Amino acid sequence: MIQVIPAQARHSVDLGWLRSSLSFSFGEYFDPENCEFSALRVFNDDTIAPGRGFGAHPHSDMEIVTLVLKGSIKHEDSLGHTVVSTVGELQRMTAGTGVIHAEYNNSDTEEGSFLQLWFMPRERGLRPSYEAGSFDRTKLVNTLLPIVTPDGADGTALIHQDLTIYLSRLEPGHSLTYEQAAGRRMYLFVIEGEATANGTMLNRRDSARIAELTTLNLQSEQGGYIMLIDLP
User: Which one, out of 71, 90, 165, 217, has a CA that is 20 to 30 A from the CA of 84?
Assistant: First the structure.
């Protein structure tokens, strides 16, 4: 089963300094029928004005991944980390028993674009931790490159949940196939361009919630930058 969520169907937030499209219930937006998909709890597509951001605030018992699409983001937390990440880089934070952090667009002149994903951890009460990672963008072409994994192998960021986040840049006319164990689920998000999943078309910023499939055939006629999450 492939359930497509068109980009325009997401809940929109515009605070002036923040424009955000929410794929799941978050903040003042609450839909009891749209709170999660497997371990995925939040998928926010944020555009943040120069020099603005989220002041210090607490989190607990959540795995948080931030991917930079444009510009740079500055992270500060109560664990003592101060890190700036840019395009081709990501951040992973285990909130665990509790952490306070802040995130800001690090540029005073340029808007920043970021994806922020929250996942339920495999267990509560983990020790809080933070990790800044990166990936080789040249290795995204026509393949699924893992960037976040449960074991942190081969330079990927480690997440405390049985999931893997992949990125891919499909060139026009190219395709690839992903095989998944039975009983698991997948979440597909088109960052740029377009792609089809088992013949189902997705355009820019569309997403798909995929269940009861073990083979996913991905292709793009015009080219597409995609994220695929293998979920329990």
Answer: 165
HEC string of 148-172 equals EECCCHHHCEECCCCCEEEEEEECC
Q: What does the alpha-carbon distance between residue 114 and residue 84 come to, in Å, rounded to a whole number? A: 13
DSSP characters over the chain: -EEEE-GGGSEEEE-SSEEEEESS-BTTB--TT-S-BTTEEEEEEEEE-TT-EEEEEEE-S-EEEEEEEESEEEEEETTS-EEEEETTEEEEEE-TT-EEEEEEE--SSS-EEEEEEEE--SSSSPPPEEEEEE--GGGGBTS-EEEEESS-GGGPEE-SSS-EEEEEEEPTTEEEEEE--TT-EEEEEEEEE-EEETTEEE-TT-EEEEES-SEEEEEESS-EEEEEEEE-
CB of 195 within 8 A of CB of 170? yes
**pLDDT per residue as tens digits for the range 12-50:** 999 999 999 999 999 999 999 999 999 999 999 999 999
* Angle, vertex CA 200, rays to CA 197 and CA 205, nearest 5: 75
Q: Does pTM top 0.85 for this prediction?
A: yes
The one-letter amino acid code at 153 reads A
Q: What is the pLDDT of residue 178?
A: 98
- Closest listed residue to residue 45, CA positions, set 173, 181, 201, 227: 227
Q: Tell me: the pLDDT tens digits for 142-180?
A: 999 999 999 999 999 999 999 999 999 999 999 999 999
